[in-house]
Design a protein that fits this description.
Layout: E1 19-24, E2 29-34, H1 37-53
Antiparallel strand pairs: 1-2
């Protein structure tokens, strides 16, 4: 951001709280909404169920290309 001369007016880093980031292209505003613990737990539970039922399939590529999962 420094390279592009974009000022940092606030920050919210660290911790174990999930966040939703909203960007408004009309005026370049950025908003952050913290995810409440019960919402966060619901997302974790959905992801665990998804991982149990879906597994990644590795598709090998020639050495000069990227690997896809």
């Amino acid at each position: 951001m420094k390279t592009e001369h974009i000022p940092l007016v606030a920050s919210g880093l660290g911790g174990h709280i999930g966040r939703n980031i909203f960007f408004l292209a009309s005026d370049f505003s950025v908003y952050v909404k913290r995810i409440e613990h019960d919402e966060e737990q619901a997302v974790v539970n959905l992801e665990k169920r998804f991982l149990k039922t879906n597994t990644a399939v590795h598709i090998p590529q020639p050495s000069d290309q990227a690997d896809f999962w």
